[in-house]
Amino acid sequence: MRPRMTVLAAAVVTALAFPVTACGQQPTTQPRAQFDATIAGPGMSAEEIRRQDATTSWADGYCRAVSELVMSLSTMPDIDPSTPQQASRTSSELLGVMVGGLDRTIESLDRLEPAPSRPAEQVKAKAVANYKGIRKSALNAMRALDAARDAEASRAAIGSVRGPLERIGRVNLLEGFAGVPELSRASARAPACRQLTDKDPAPRFGDGVR
Fold first, then answer.
1. d(CA 37, CA 24)
2. 83 vs 176, which has greater pLDDT?
3. Contacts of 197 (CB under 8 A, 6+ apart)
4. Is the pTM of this model over 0.85?
5. Where are the domains of the chain?
6. Tally of CB atoms within 10 A around 27
């Protein structure tokens, strides 16, 4: 089991094919200056410019929120298979890192300004629900691992790690953006979104455990 888990732990970062540290960098320009180059358009009214600017800013905040998870998963430890107890303990630690990243992403998404449209709000709501579901699965697995008191129980609990890892591996960080034209366009303008989509328009952590 260790090779598969270790590969996923390393792959969740490299699968995005961009430097994870870039996601945590603060912009060197003020927010308005960031988007000045994107809001000008021939024949656009002041209201259209305002709405486009607001949508781009919201999308950028969304991408920064999901980047919190990317950064957390980059620090997931390897599973130590030397003994069943060690495998159980390190698996719990790995899931703890995942839960921490999910918590920060969910909190950041909840702190976003109101979405620019109902479809955008639905995209966020679906993502939050998915992340909460993965978090619950990871917590249940952690409890099983932490409750294991002997080698046999540890071996049985290790199997519970697979579910949340597979689910996180299938996550598309910008799920739903392509189906909402204003978000699709905004993600092409927002700096944090461009970092996520530089190599893949549907950035994922990986294919999970096979």
1. 22
2. 176
3. 174, 187, 188, 203
4. no
5. 2-16+32-197
6. 12
